[in-house]
User: Fold these one by one.
Assistant:
Number 1:
Amino acid sequence: MIDIRSSIACNLDSHILRAALPLFADEKVGAIEWSFDALINQRSMPDWFGELLRTYSEAGCLVGHGVFYSLFSGRWTGAQQQWLDQLRSLSRTYRFDHVTEHFGFMTGADFHKGAPMSIPFTESTLAIGRDRLVRLQDACRCPVGLENLAFAYTIDEVNRHGAFLSQLIEPVNGFIILDLHNLYCQSRNFGVEPDALLSLYPLYRVREIHLSGGSWAPSAVEPGRTIRRDTHDDAVPADVFRLLKQAIDLCPNLRYVVLEQLGAGLQTDGQQSQFQQDFLWMDHIVQTANQIRNSLINHSFLPRRFHVPDSSPLEDPLLYAQQLELSDILETSVSCAQAQQRLAGSGLARSNWAVETWQPAMLETALAIAQKWKNGFD
Amino acid sequence: MKISKPILQAMALAVAVTTVGSSCKDGLVKPKKEEAKKEQQRKLPDNCPACGMG
């Protein structure tokens, strides 16, 4: 029987591990999701963490979640090839039940810096995304998927995101991670009912669901408005649990429900206790769904045959130039007004990026995100 | 899922003696006490963002 597994995003972080330890001891954690590329120095991994990964790997309950592949970069870089080589090597050490990445391109100057930001939904970005997914699957030789992004500049992006994800994963017969907190952010930031957003996604393609918390940021350019951000530093909101109850029965191919939280939000005993309570409530919802679930449904999300990547990775020099320009504007503008002015005079003006339609409060948020992560973890 | 006792014990020891945590920097969870003590002298870095980059 294919059950949904209650899972934890488990990285080598003392706060996360301290919070999760009682759940591991009570045999509650059905699977772990490991951000394999967040660990710069693989040789620094303690033996016991490797053994933990191996335990889940051997049970077929280890999933990989990349952060830094930068799927939509207009230029193919050596760092991306190195990322794939590392994944190929890790996939020989551990058996990933599937591997996923984020939607977007990384704003940072190099790997391990920057944050994923959205791109225009065009034929060019579709082709680049498909090319990168084929390479990803060629490296890990297992099902691959993409996660919906929390951030959007406009309601139009929100409305088209699910369909574009669906087009991207089609050649690799891939799947979607439906991050419910990301959906919640979009719902609150753009005034759309969560039900309406759910209906925009091909839910039969959802193999994994993410749950997390976040924070509210007041907007300076739109006084009185607060923006919901996917900062993973607080408990899971009740609305997101309600969304899980609703979504779980609508996703027949769901295999994993993953609780994510940053170690920075798990420093006190109270925060760690809240994390454990959130996990147990999530597990209750999952186990309830498992009791009434049709166990005969089991979509492999593997292609009929693995594609051989083209020897020349697809590139779009204009897109890359625009991404560089946008990254610089987001990382160095001192105000939203300055960013708007610079965008108006940039190569992104009157282009597929539709910068003229970007909501000021969301541009302000993009500045905050890009500037928060421009130096990586330093 | 059942995790073996030695793994759980090693994990418990590591998190008990480590105050610095990051999956991205060299301030990793350390399996040994002396390494963990050295880490305590360092500045607490931002944790690995995983996908909490919003």
Note: Confidence is low (pLDDT under 50) at residues 20-28, 35-47 of chain B.
Number 2:
Amino acid sequence: MTRTPWLTSLGVALAVLAATTTGCSAGGRAGAERVEVSMWSHSAGNPAEIEVINRIIADFNASQDRYTVKPEFFPQAAYNDAIVAAATAGDLPCLLDMDGPVMPNWAWARVIAPLDLPESLTDQFLPSTVGRWNGRIYSIGYWDAALAMFARRSVLESNGVRVPTMDRPWTKDEFDAALVTLKNAGFEHAIDLGNYDTGEWWPYAYSPMLQSFGGDLIDRGTYRTAQGALNGPRAVAFAQWFQSLFTRGLASKSPTPDRQDFLLGNVAIAWNGNWSAPDAIEKYGEDLLLLPPPDFGEGPKIGGASWQWGLSANCPSLDGARRYIAFSLKPEYVAAFSEETGLIPATDAAAALTEEYGPDGRLHELVGFSREYAVIRPPTPAYSVISSVFEKTMQDVMNGADVQTSLDSAVDQIDFNLESNDNYGL
Amino acid sequence: MTARPGTSPGRSRTHARAIERRSAWAFVTPALFLLMLFLGVPALLALGLSFTNARLISPNAPEFTGLENYVRAFTSDPVFLRSLLNTFYFAAVVVPVQAGLGLALALLVNQRIRGVNIFRTVFFLPVVTSMVVVSILWTFMYQEDGLINSMLSRMTGGLVEGTAWLQQPSTAMPAIIILSVWQGVGFHMVIWLAGLQTIPAELYEAATVDGAGAWQRFRNVTWPGLRPTLVFVLVTITIAAFGLFVQIDVMTRGGPLDSTTTIIFHAVRKGFREQEVGYGAALSLIFFVLVLIVSLIQRRLTRENT
Amino acid sequence: MATIDQAPGAAVTASRTREAGPRASGRVPLYLLLVLLSLFFLFPVVFMLVSSLKPDDQIFQDLGSGAAFLPVGELSLDNYAGVFDRVPAIRFLLNSVFVTVVTVLLGLFVNSLAGFALSRMEWRGRKLILALVIATLIIPFETVALPMVYWVAKLPWLEFEGLRPVIEQGWLNSYQVQILPFVANAFSIFLFAQYFGSIPRSLDEAARVDGCGWFRIYRKVVVPLSGPVFATVAILTFLPVWNSYLWPLMVVQEESKRPVMIGVQYFNQLTPAWGETMAYSTLITIPVLVVFLSFQRAFVRSIAASGVKG
């Protein structure tokens, strides 16, 4: 114990480790005087998206010799933690992707900077792919997503369920009856709502149903209260119907992870996004139907505005970051994104380059859903609170909580946040 | 070491005193500085922030709001009240079960039989397995088509059909309790063991000579000798139980239906994830008061003992 | 502070107070009970190790039988390869090793110095400081964690770009934010003070007559006699640092500084691939198991020592 050679060897090991670790981080920018432009993305769970992003970055880095974009990928569930911490430290990466509806919060907090891209460029993009706050553009996306009711023609027809169209979507009663029929036809559950997922999926997937019922997440007249919108009779009708899907066994509280239920034939219908279309096409081919969402009263609705790219206000190389964004908006990349991921390209020029979304593509109709049905989630800094409150509330409802009490409590929580922030100056 | 002849004894003594004082301060300064920086300042900050509407990221300066955060916690935040309740529920089960099971294991492995060290090691093994890994592992085992249900079904010949344990409000917390006890009990077994070893063998010998049976020996010799250990074990488990976070964050994120949200999990959700750091600080302080109460009870109990 | 006079660590090793072994007839049920309990404590770990070697469908297929705990069927290291393929797991391991080792070593030095001054030196303010240090024991980390995020985000740090010193604001995404808050530890100081207090003072006197300074006394007289307490403190600080989750969850986001526990949870959140997740879990459990099995006695002694406080 008096002589401690292990301590010495440990010290040496430590020194070596320290040397190698610092060596690693410095090694990247050896040689030229390139400025590093850091980038974060939420796509760690999605190899196809990573592939395209890396391709754009490689092309951009090769196209000039002043900037090197360096990406880092996070799992979606952890991404919010990462952004919150980094914003707290004033240490956000130059380039970051954000889910469209949370963008206003960051713009309000002044941690992201306006893009200042030429209008001739941004005008070509679908309105729901351009994120605006107080009249300025803070974010832009390569794509939008659209939800659809995935189903199989053979299953619907053999059970006598009418195949809906954009001209004549299912009504609420028709849809409900179809679910009951399909459940009785021997499926484990009639529909997979995707509720295995947590986080933003909940408001993204289910608040459009609420809106189709005639409710909303917030009073869009003033953006100062959720009273009436989220707990009025129409919202209650929505939540009761949603709850009944589970109590009647039409949907499962714990579906198979990874949206497998529809592919495994456990369910007849899946409320799913176009990003899942390629897998479903591969599995069911011509039998697959991508149907418009039901009209619960106020017309069919789907969520608009998805993940978009923005710039942090404290970026030391704003110029490089802006150049990267402008570079990455080329039709070929927007199209490539769509080809690899199945997402709806944000510009017509890009759509024409894709197989699926071109005029003769199998997914062409989804572009129509995006244009006709998309509702943007409320552009208010309070959205992050609204989102988590709505998710929690709907999970409670799914698990059998009293509907009116849950919705009233949700309204209280949202209004409290609005009040304690002086309505975010709205 | 060479001897250095001193000057006059009186001066050298004062001189030595001064050196001793200066050296002592030099020795404690690094630790004190770090404690102040990473415990003192944040603790004061917690207190200060809890009276404001501070947000982690905001263009506006925090405003003083008095006791509003505390009022909100107890009057208009049902999830917090649920978190308090869940935390107490967790502690109320885990504390006696883990302490009792730990003692039973300690008594078992305190016997002079062959191979007992191996069993000791095995019981202790989960303690060195990180809680994150344990939580991931048990999440997998608790799945509807997971290991637990397969074993249940097999052992009962298909009679018992398990459920998705972590997705049911009624079973999620008990499921977390089981894995928490599984992970932590070895730690307290060792502490009980240390307590057992401090009881002098002569007492047992004397009791045996007096004709006492095993149960009487336990009642009259072992148990009284374990009083100080008991207090320590109960307090450490209680404080650890109050701080329940990792299992929740990894396994259930507070759900289903808030059935597993806890004080610390809720504080992190509000204070960090939703950026309301002022409110989160208030929740942290409420947690602190709970721990303080437990510690004060501990002090009283230990005083009575000595 | 019930037993300050007793050096920690003495407790468990003594076997003199063990109860006499049961008679032979009672042993069979006793062993049966011990074995059953062992199964309860071992089965999840064995399941993890075994599953890490199997492809996912094999794992599920084996669940219903004893095969779930046996390395049978299609075995390979593919899951491990898969982990390395998808994330820089080695990097996370190195980060954790670095953070843990530095925290423990700095902690041993800083806390033992303070413990030395508080137990073996006479100076005004000693009692006050000791009381203050002990008082901080009552503040749980969870209480200060949130405000500390706010706080460390504003602390300055000196960095070198080449040879040029640069002052950076904010400690997030760094090694120091994972290390420095956990170096000074009131409980470690207390353990050191308690142990050092039990070493005869006459040794110091002798050294001082020889003209030794205080630091030399610490280094040449006290430290060499205090192996056990250094081992105890090292073990008690090693585990929580290696396992830390709540703190790095909030303050470390960049991959280059990420520790293993955050790494494995992120991995767990990706598309579920249970075989790979089990492989990853095994990977970060093995180092601790190896350390534990090689220093078993010291582990047990340390934890026993933590129980002797009060």
Note: The domain at 79-305 of chain B is CATH 1.10.3720.10 (MetI-like fold).
